[in-house]
Amino acid sequence: MKVDETIALLRQGKQVSEETVYTLCLRSQELLMSEANVTRVDTPVTICGDIHGQLHDLLTLFDKSGGVENNKYVFLGDFVDRGFYSLESFLLLLCYKLRYPDRITMIRGNHETRQITKVYGFYDEIVRKYGNSNVWRYCCEVFDYLSLGAVVDGQVFCVHGGLSPNVTTVNQIRAIERKQEVPHEGAMCDLLWSDPDEVSTWSLSPRGAGFLFGRNEVDQFLHCNGLELIARAHQLVMEGYKEMFGGGLVTVWSAPNYCYRCGNVAAVLRIEDGLSREYMIFEAVQAQDDVGNAIIPTKKPQMDYFL
Amino acid sequence: MNGVRQDELRETESKRVKVYILEQNEWKDTGTGFCIGKVDKEERQAEQNAPPEDALAAYLVVNDEEAPEKTLLWSKLEGNIEYQRQEETLIVWKDLSGQDIALSFEESTGCDALCDFIIKIQKSSENNISLVAVRSNDDGMGSVHEIITGPVNLPCNDAEQDEKQLMEALKILNENTAFEYLRSETMEFVLKSNYVATLIKLFEKAEAGHKLRELLLLSNILKTLTLYNQRELLEQMVGDEYIMGVVGILEYDTEFPTSKANHREYLLHSGPHFKEVVPLNSDDMKRIIKKTYRLQFFKDVVLVRFLDEHSFNIISDIILDLQTCIINFIQDETFLPKLIALYTAASPDTPIETKRDGIRMLHQCVQITKNLEHSEKSRFFKALVRAGLFKIFDFAFGQETDSGIRILATDMVISIIEHDILLINSVQNELINQPEGLDQEQQHSHKQPAENGNCTVSSDVSLLAILSKILLTDKSLGLKEQVVQALNTLLHPEGCMGMDPDYNDSGGVDMMMNFNDARSNGMNEENLIDNMNFQMTDYFNNFYTQVAPQLFAPLITNSLSTPDDDVLLIYLVKLINFVSTEHNRRLSREFIMENNILKNIAKLLDPQRMLQLRLTVVRCLKSIVCLNDEFYHRYLISENLYAPVMDLLRENLHEDNLANSSILDFFKIVSSQCMQALELKASDKRNFIMLNKHLVKNYRDILLEVDYVPFTKDMIRMYDEGEGQLRESVTESTSMVYAKEGKRTFSETLETTKVSTSEETTTFKKAMEKITSAPPQSFIKEDVLGTEF
C-alpha cells in the first residue's frame, strides 16, 4: 500500500479497496499501540473537535490551519457517524498519521465504538459502499487502540468528553486497559461521554452515560494536575468554540454546518509555545473534486434490486 | 349568493340554547329558545341594492321557547365572520355590525349540529367565514386555537406562472403547514388538482429557459410539500408518471445554487434493474419494488440533507410497509422453492453465475428484513430454512470459491442466528419429526449427515463445524472476521434470551463483567437459565467434544508460527477468552485445562509474535484471573505462566504504551482484589492473596521498578505484612471449593463470583483513601495521589 496514493484517493472521496483498508488499519494499530493512554504533545499544536464524517470540511480545516506538512494536530475524536464520508475522514487521518507520525494525535470519541456506529451511520455507510460490513469491523478494531487523551506541554489536558469521578489525576488514566469496546460506566466511559455544566458537583448526565461536572470539578482537576486548561469537544457549539469556568475549560467543535443543516460555524484551537490560545473559525464551503467541479455531499445509493 | 343551491335548502334540527349579547362588556342573557341553522331567501332587511329575489343566504335563527313566534336571534353567516367554538357547548362570534353574540347550548350534541352547519356553509357558499375551536390547555393556563374550517389560501395552479407567483405559492405552502386543517385542505388540493404535474410542466419550461431562480423556487416548493408528510403524495411523487420530473426539480438546491445534482441520469442508468434469477411473474410486485427503490433513493440521496426526523420516519414507514409486501411475496409458495431448486440435483445445469446471483438476491432480502418486525422476520427466516436454505449454504461453503459470495452467505447466517440462535435447529427438528413432509433428497441427507461436507440437516453443531473449518482454512480476512462473529453468536449462552450480541468481540474485562451483572439482576432469568440448561447442555457438550478440538487445534498442538497465523491466533485466543468467561465453567475449564491451552497461549507472548497477539493473550489471562477460579489460579501459578507476562512488562518497563498500561491494569486488579480479601475479610477473594504472593515473591524486583503507580507498592506491602498466616487459610478454603465443585449445576456455575467493575472502582477508591491516610511514603510521587486527599 502506498500511503501517498491512498491519501490522494481519499481526498477526492474515492473508494479505496478492502485490502488497502485492511493493511492501513493493521499498520495504524502498530503505531497506536506504541502510544500512551494519555499522549504527550508539544506546542505549537492545533486542537480540533468533532469531524463526524464531513470529509470536505476536514479538508478545509487542514487548508485553513496550515496543513499537516507544517503543523501538529490533536483530534479530539468523533471522526465518524452523521456525515456521509465517515470512512474517508477516518482513513485520511490514519494515513496522515502513518505518513507524519508525530504530527497527528487521534483521541477516541464516544462515536468510535461498535455499538454507536451501528446506529448513527458509519456501519450503514460501509454496507452501502462495500456491500458487506468487513471494513467496518477493521475500523472498529482500530478504534479500540486509540488513545483516551493527550496533554499538551504538560498544561492542556485534551479529551473527547470530559472528567470522571474515578479520575483524580492524569496518571490514573495510565492504568486503564483501553483496548476494548467503550464500557457503559467507569473511568474510560466518562472520559468519552461527560459534559461540563453549571452544576455544583458530579451530576447524572441526560445522555445516559458519563457525568455532568461543574466549575468545582474542573478547578480541582486543573489544580491537582498542574494544568491550565481542559480542551474537549463532544457538544455542538454554534460559534465553533466556547470557553467556560473562567477559561479553565473549552469546547471545540470542528464540523461546520453540522449534519449539513445546523448552520453553525466550526473552530480549531491553536496553542502556541507560550500557551497562548488562538481560535481559527471556519465555515462550510462548497466541496470540490480534484478538477474544481462542485461536489454535493450525499450518501451513496444502495445497490439495485436482484429479484 | 350563488353557492347555495336549491336542493340544499333545508334546516337543521332545532336545539335548545340560551342567547347572550355583549353589552358594555357584560354578557346579557336575552332568553332561551330553540336554535336552527337555515338557508332561506335573502330578504328581511330592505336594502337599497337588494339582491335578486331568488338569492339565498344562511342564517342562525333562535326562536323563544315559550313564544315560538318570537325570534330571539336572526344572524346571517356572511363576510369573514370567525365563529369560535369554546369548549363543548358555546359558539361565540362578532357579526359584521360589531355585535358580540354567544350561544350556549344545553347539550354538546346541539353545539355539534350547529357547528356542522357552519362548516357546510363555509364549504359551499360563504368561503370566507371560519370556525375555530378554542380549548383551554391541559394545565388550565392559556388556550389552544384550532381551525375547524375557514378560507384556505392555495397556491396558483396555472400552467403559466412567473417568479412572483411561485414565490407566493412557496409562502402559502409554508404558512399552511401551521394548522392541521390548512394542511389537510392543502393536501386535498395538491392531490385532486394534480399540482405536482403543474410544477413539473413549469419546471420543464424553466429549465429550458435557464431560469435559475424559478428552478430553485420550484425545488423549494416541492421540498415544502414533502414536509406535509402525506403518504399518498409521497407515493404519487415516486410513481412512474412523476418520478423523473420530481427528481429533476430536486436536482436544484438553494444551498448549492451553482451546481446541479444528476438524479435523473442516475435513475435512468442505475435502476432499479430487475435481474430476475427466478421470474417474478407479477407486475404489481415489480411496481412495489420500483417504488421501494425510488423512496430509498429519495430518503438517502435526493432529500438526504433536507428531511427532518418526522419526514424521515414517514418515508421509512412507507418503505417498511412495501418491504413487508416484498418479503411476503418472496416466501410465497411459488417463488422460494423455484429459487432453491436451482441449487439441487434437480437442476444440475444451473450456471454458476445464476447461483451467485441467487445468493446475492437472498442476501438482499435478508438485509431488507433488518427493519421488519420480529415476528415477520421469524416467519421469513423459518420459511427460508424450511425451503432448504442449507442447500444454498452447501453450495456457498462447499463448491463456491469466490470469497465475496461466501461472505454474503456467512452474512446471512449471522443475520439469522443473531435474530434467533435456535431458529435453525428448531426448524430442522420440526422437519425431522415430520419425515413425510420431506422429499427424498432431504431424507437422504438426514441419514448421512457428515458425508462429503453435506450440512443440510444433522446434529446441532454442524454449522459450528463448518464455520470452524472456514476460520481455519479460508484465506479471506474479511470472511474470517465474519465467521468469528458468527461463532461468537452461536456460542453465546444468552443468544437465545434476546441479549444484545454486539459485545462478542470484546477482550475487555469490564465488558464481560457488565454482562454478568446484567444477567444476575434480571428477575426471571434464573428460571430461564434453568430451562435453557436442558436444551443447551447437549449443544455445548457436542461443541466441546466434536467441534472445539478442531477449532482450537492450533492452540492445542501449538503448530502455527508464520506471521499470517498470528491473525488467526488472535481470533482463537479471543474465542478462548470468550468461552472461558461465558460458558459453563466446568465444561469449558475441563477442555481448556486438559488440552493445556493456557500454557500454549502463554507461549504466544513470545517477542517474535505480533504485538497485537501478545496483548490479546494478556487480556485473555486477565479475564481468566478475574473469574476468581481456584483451578485456574493454581494452574497459572504452578505452570509459571505469569513469567512471560513479566517479560513483556520488562520490555516495556519504562514505556508509556498500550502493553505497559495493560499490565498496570492487571496489577490494579490484583492489588485491589487482594486488599479487599485482606481488609474486608472477603473469604471468596483468597485466590488473589495467593496470586499476589506468587507475584511479589517471584517478581519483587520488577514490581519495585514500577514506581509510577501506587498499587505495585500495595502489592509488596500486603505480601510483607501478611506473609505467615496466609498460607494456612488458603489451603483450608481450597479443600472446601474442591468438595463443592463436583455438585455444581449449570446455573450455579454461572453465578460464580466474579470481580465486578463497580467493586473494582470502590476498592480502588478505598485503597486510595487508605494509602493517603497513612503517613506519606517517600517514593510515591505527588502526582499520583493528588493534593486534595
From TrEMBL, chain A:
Broad enzyme group: hydrolase
Single GO biological process annotation from the record: regulation of TORC1 signaling
Ranges of residues in domain Serine/threonine specific protein phosphatases: 107-112
Cofactor needs: Mn(2+)
SUPFAM superfamilies reported in the protein's UniProt record: Metallo-dependent phosphatases
Domain of life the protein comes from: Eukaryota
Pfam families the UniProt entry points to: Metallophos
EC number of the protein: 3.1.3.16
SMART domains registered for this protein in UniProt: PP2Ac
Catalytic reaction(s) noted: O-phospho-L-seryl-[protein] + H2O = L-seryl-[protein] + phosphate; O-phospho-L-threonyl-[protein] + H2O = L-threonyl-[protein] + phosphate
Keywords for the protein's UniProt record, in alphabetical order: Hydrolase, Manganese, Metal-binding, Protein phosphatase
GO molecular function: metal ion binding; protein serine/threonine phosphatase activity
Gene Ontology CC entries for this record: protein serine/threonine phosphatase complex
Stated family: Belongs to the PPP phosphatase family.
The protein's name: Serine/threonine-protein phosphatase
UniProt source species: Lachancea thermotolerans (strain ATCC 56472 / CBS 6340 / NRRL Y-8284) (Yeast)
TrEMBL record, chain B:
GO cellular component terms, A-Z: nucleoplasm; protein phosphatase 4 complex
GO annotation terms (biological process): DNA damage response; negative regulation of cell cycle process
Annotated ranges, domain PP4R3 EVH1-like: 15-123
Keywords from the UniProt entry: Nucleus
Domain Serine/threonine-protein phosphatase 4 regulatory subunit 3-like central: 170-721
Presence of the UniProt keyword Transmembrane helix in the record: no
Subcellular location: Nucleus
Chain coiled-coil ranges: none
UniProt-listed Pfam families: EVH1_PP4R3, PP4R3
GO function terms (MF aspect): protein phosphatase activator activity
Cross-referenced InterPro entries: ARM-type_fold (IPR016024), EVH1_PP4R3 (IPR055236), P4R3-like_central_dom (IPR006887), PH-like_dom_sf (IPR011993), PP4R3-like (IPR051137)
Role description: Core regulatory subunit of the histone H2A phosphatase complex, which dephosphorylates H2AS128ph (gamma-H2A) that has been displaced from sites of DNA lesions in the double-stranded DNA break repair process. Dephosphorylation is necessary for efficient recovery from the DNA damage checkpoint.
The protein's name: Serine/threonine-protein phosphatase 4 regulatory subunit 3
